[in-house]
Transposase IS66 family protein (Acidithrix ferrooxidans), 412 residues
Amino acid sequence: MDSLHTTESAYWKAEAERLAGDNVRLQAENAELRARVSELEGQIGALTEKVTTLAKLVFGTSSEKSKPVEPRRGKDYITGEKRPRGQQPGSPGHGRRDYSALETVEVIHDVPDNERICSGCGAPYAAFGEETSDQIDWQVHIVRHRHRRPTYRRTCKCQTLGMLVAPVPAKPIPKGMFTSGFLGRLVVEKYVLGRPLERIVAALSNDGFEVSKGTLTGALKALSDLLEQLDAAIRERNAKSAHLHIDETSWKVFEAVADKAGNRWWLWTFLGPDTVVFLIDPKCSTRVVAEHLGIDIDAGSLEPGRQLLISSDFYSVYQSLGALEGVDPLWCWAHIRRYFIRASDAHQELRSWTTSWLARIGSLYVAHRALSVCEVQSPEHVRATADFAAALQAMDTVRKAEASIRRFTLGS
């Protein structure tokens, strides 16, 4: 009996030790799983933030400008009463336009001679001023310029020129058929008004001039060579500007290029005080900007005596340029504003914080607008300058306060 009791006691003791070991193991596994769950929750939060931000970038509106409230047709959107069509009384208008600078062709509409006699007594009517009215006509003339050069032969036996003829008139394109005026109009239609060559050909055909698309294409290519020197001068002046607005966007180019995968190229825009340069390049790198501006990135600074102010977004290319000595970056407030909006989209608890900052940025825009429209040294300009400085100071005060709170939180 004692032996059986001893055996059973040893069994339960061993079972208790096994269960205790399982308990320790399960507690360790539970702690490990809790840590893993916490890690996964953090990853889910980060991914949710990215998805929210990317979804807003892809599917959100491209413009942040507020749209004006449109009244319903025929109704006043405030009172709801029916209103007449067209411009409303009291609303600002452009006034009567002045067309006196247009070429004027006078057409006289006179009363017939036999009707300018009194039907009662036969006395003639006397001139008493006139009434005038204007109409605007739209005329397109396709004109052929035929250059005639009379020739003269020598009538004597002197050893001089046997024949005289005026020189061939100069042409923008050698052996070309178009005048400089035609080519100028073609460039405006194609690149300023953005009309495709097919429509230009159709418009010329409607006006009586049949020409092929290939002929116009050849003329545009020849013009490219003529404008090369002007293009180089514009690029050089732009590159030497003291202040440039720079931006880039993707540009589809369906052309096979060695060591270039895909069709996405880049359109770079350089806006100076009096010039604009557009560059299309396969790469989106600092090299493109540096080559245009004539900057040696490896030198770490601009040439001595040169200062360059760059207005741009936060793209890494502009950050690299901002690190150079002599380059001062001026970050775009519109892009800074979007970072606040994205933070609020991804973290709803930051909505009130974002709203406060958007209000401050809006005040800065209003103050800057008022400053830009005031005459310099006027009382309005002095007040606007003070308002602008106050808006900046308010932003800087809040920025420093929030930065100190963040440092305190991290330090604690």
